[in-house]
Amino acid sequence: MTQLAFSAPAERNKEPILQVLRDLLPSHGAALEIASGTGQHVVWFGEHLPGWQWQPTDLQDDIFSSINARIEKQRLRNVQPPLILDVLSDSWLPDSQARFDLIYCANMLHIAPWACCQGLMRGAVRHLTPTGRLVTYGPYLEDEVLTSEGNLKFDASLRAQNPDWGIRRREDVENQANHAGLYLAQRHSMPANNLLLVWQRKDPKG
Known about the structure:
The protein is about 35% helix and about 25% strand. By secondary structure, the protein is α/β, with parallel strands linked by helices. It has a single domain, classed as Rossmann fold (3-Layer(aba) Sandwich). Helix 4 packs parallel to helix 6 (about 170-180). The strands form 2 sheets. Strands 3-2-1-4-5-9-8 form a 7-stranded mixed beta sheet, with helices on both faces. A two-stranded parallel sheet has the order 6-7.
């Protein structure tokens, strides 16, 4: 039996995120998850949003056995086997014409080089349907919002591990999104000092 990789934060935040997605999304659609990690989110969403088809992805395949085991355990037909996806690549998927109503990315931007934010925004524009949404989740710094002590310590620990990491300013992320052709449509405050941000095309004609 495959030993399932497990993330305690993913387990805690999957339900609050699901509640926002339920209010945000129509009953049916196609979703691409970036940086799926343990697969806890995509399997939870697949189970509770059965009208949606989900494609998990990650940069490396060393955790894919855990994702596949979770999919099989829940007997989900609407969650596909994971694919390798590098947000810095100009070719995200084998099908370059694939379009999604939702692209979902949680807890990646602060543990990846800044170039990955740029790549995420550019790739989202390539692969979103005209009315599709990019949803990002995680901790952010904001100019007009006092940063919690916990997030300050977390940011310092990230930068100590890797100088290319760190909690991103929401305004900097927004600038990258705008440059790629997206705008910030919704901002949701979430538990544990996190934000869920919803990005949409500036030009819905694509």
